[in-house]
């Protein structure tokens, strides 16, 4: 799923989605109600949005 500029992956059959960068240590997650509405969201990502790249100099560049 996409929320803001970040993508999230669903964990098994639960209604909880974790940031696609979770394996890199990002703890952001989103929980959904059965109807699809957002129940809870932690959007404190440790990285820039997916449509940005970090250059070697540390700047964020939009793709
Ligand atoms: Zn993240």
Could you characterize the architecture of this molecule?
- The protein is 0% helix and 41% strand.
- The protein has 63 residues and is mainly β.
- It has a five-stranded antiparallel β-sheet with strand order 1-2-3-4-5, with no helix packed on it.
- The protein is elongated and about 45 Å long.
Keywords:
5-stranded antiparallel sheet; 63 residues; two-stranded antiparallel ribbon
Question: Secondary-structure blueprint of this entry?
Answer:
Blueprint: E1 2-3, E2 6-10, E3 16-19, E4 29-32, E5 38-42, E6 52-54, E7 60-62
Antiparallel strand pairs: 1-2, 2-3, 3-4, 4-5, 6-7
The structure holds zinc ion.
Which cofactors or ions or other ligands sit in this model?
Answer: zinc ion
Strand content: 35-45%
Structural domains: how many: 1
Number of helices: 0
Give the radius of gyration. Answer: 13 Å
Helical amount: under 10%
Strand order, largest beta sheet: 1-2-3-4-5
Terminal CA distance: 20 Å
Helix and strand element order: EEEEEEE
Largest β-sheet summary: 5 strands, antiparallel
The tally of strands reads 7
Q: Output mean pLDDT.
A: 87
Please state the structural category: mainly beta
Shape: elongated
Unreliable residue runs: none
Oligomeric nature of the chains: single chain
Organism: Plutella xylostella (Diamondback moth)
Protein name: FLYWCH-type domain-containing protein
């Amino acid at each position: 799923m996409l929320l803001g500029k970040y993508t999230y992956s669903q964990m098994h059959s639960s209604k909880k989605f974790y940031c696609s960068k979770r394996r890199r240590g990002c703890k952001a997650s989103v929980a959904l109600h059965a109807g699809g509405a957002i129940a809870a969201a932690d959007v404190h990502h440790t990285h820039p949005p997916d449509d940005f790249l970090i250059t070697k100099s540390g700047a964020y560049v939009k793709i």
